[in-house]
Amino acid sequence: MFKWLDPYAKSETLYHLCGKLLPYLMVSALALLLLGNIWGLAFTPADYQQGDSYRIIHIHVPSAIMSMGAYAAMASAAFVALVWQIKVAHWAVLAIAPIGAVYTAIALITGMAWGKPMWGAWWVWDARLTSELILLFLYLGVIALHGAFSDRQVGNKVASLLALVGVINLPIIHFSVEWWNTLHQGASITKFAKPSIDPSMLWPLLISILAFALLLLALTCLRLRTAILVNEQHRPWVRKLVGG
Amino acid sequence: MQPRRQKRLFSILLIISLIAGAVGAMLYALQQNIDLFYTPTQLVEGLGKDKVKPVVGQRLRIGGMVVPGSVSRDAVSLKVRFQLVDIGPTVWVEFEGILPDLFREGQGIVAQGTLLAPDLIQASEVLAKHDEEYMPAEVAEAMKGIRHIPPSQANFASGDSSSGSSYSKPTDKPTY
Fold first, then answer.
1. Which of A199, A236, A241, B156 has the most CB atoms around it within 10 Å of its CB?
2. Which CATH fold topology does B40-154 show?
């Protein structure tokens, strides 16, 4: 069924595929990021209760959604890496981890900046905030665990296993606002009902979410290419490529 | 699928489902501790199957909607008293300090403090809980009848304690 994917397990093919995709992803991500954020931050109407403070949603929500999206992608790569024992999938796990960690940090920091004026507190140990913080620790854990082993093969395996196990946190983050009493509000757009956000504010937000997703892909391609070159530096095709 | 891959697949699925089960059981056991706050109903009627009521003197958080018309402010200090409700009984909250911007009647809040009586909390911190609805002022006015007045155009009533009591009556409608 997945036979057509087989060539991409080869590092050289994947390197060239990423190289081909990278400019398109990067240009579209940056263009949409500029469009969505400028529209959202400067040209949408102010919220009826929060005034201009609500505008942080245009950075907070895309980074929060994509911090979870990145984790799902990283865990999928870890699953493929462990079951099919594909090297490039291990490298993909480590390519995604720092990007996801930064997205999570952005979500936490912008959330705190919003929480202070709106809630009256920078931080509250409610279920949503705590589980998102655990997500950050999972990302950092994957990076640290990989670095903790001098045998790179073992490090890859253990890091991928942690990435895979941590996937349990994703439904907890998403449903935390429904399962428990939290200070964090419920979902505005990621639910099956009509979004509880006005269309004039929703469109720039959706564009920003798409932009963050494309940026994640672009940065993953970039980092994966570097990882392939570093790990395969003794292969003839790499030597030929870099002219060494 | 090769038998070796199959074996790895099953062992990974087994590890994940075991850990998911363990985490699930842990969260279930900790359910009451993960809740950030008591609702007024839980405070008055008790929590969970055993109807555990918090004891007087206990530090806790209470979350609910500010009952419209219940907010009374002290004219000479920052003391404020208001009632909270969810779906059942109401409880009183006393607080001295600056309330968050989003505090208003009909708005959800979370207060942290000490239980003075079974239905009275002396709060040391009041946080506003925002809901998930976002809309521009004009839409809110059309849908909810809430009028937005920018702070620059608002004229704040000052020293308006003609009712004689030490608590002045707040305006009926939230202004923005």
1. A241
2. OB fold (Dihydrolipoamide Acetyltransferase, E2P) (2.40.50)
What digits encode the pLDDT tens for the residues B117-128? 888 999 999 998
Say whether the ipTM exceeds 0.90.
no
- The residue ranges of every structural domain in chain A are 18-40+54-188+195-242
Q: Which of B65, B132, B173 to mutate to test the interface with A (most CBs of A within 10 A)?
A: B132
**Cβ under 8 Å to A: B residues 17-76:** 19-20, 23, 27, 31, 34-37, 39, 63
Min CA distance, A164 vs chain B (Å)? Answer: 8
Name the closest residue on chain B to residue A121, using Cα atoms. Answer: B127
pLDDT tens-digit readout, A62-77: 999 999 999 999 999 9
Average pLDDT, chain A: 91
Distance CA B106, CA B68 (A): 5
Q: Delimit the domains of chain B by residue range.
A: 3-27, 40-154
Query: Residues A175-184: pLDDT tens digits?
Result: 998 888 888 8
Cβ <8 Å between B101 and A117:
yes
Instruction: Quickly state the pLDDT bin for B33 (edges 50, 70, 90).
Output: confident
Cβ-based contacts of B136 with chain A (< 8 Å): 44-48, 198, 200-201
Residue A167 makes CB contacts below 8 A (sequence gap 6+) with A71, A72, A75, B16
Q: Please, are residues A126 and A173 in contact by the beta-carbon 8 Å criterion?
A: no
Nearest beta carbon to residue B63 from set A50, A181, A187: A181
A229, amino acid identity: L
Joined together, the tokens standing for residue B169 give 């009556």
Assess contact for A136 and A101: CB atoms under 8 A.
yes
The distance from CA A25 to its chain's CA centroid, rounded to whole angstroms, is: 15
Asked if residue B129 has pLDDT above 90, the reply is no
- Residue A5 in contact with residue A79, Cβ under 8 Å? no
| CB-closest option in B37, B127, B133 to A119 | B127
The model's pTM = 0.85
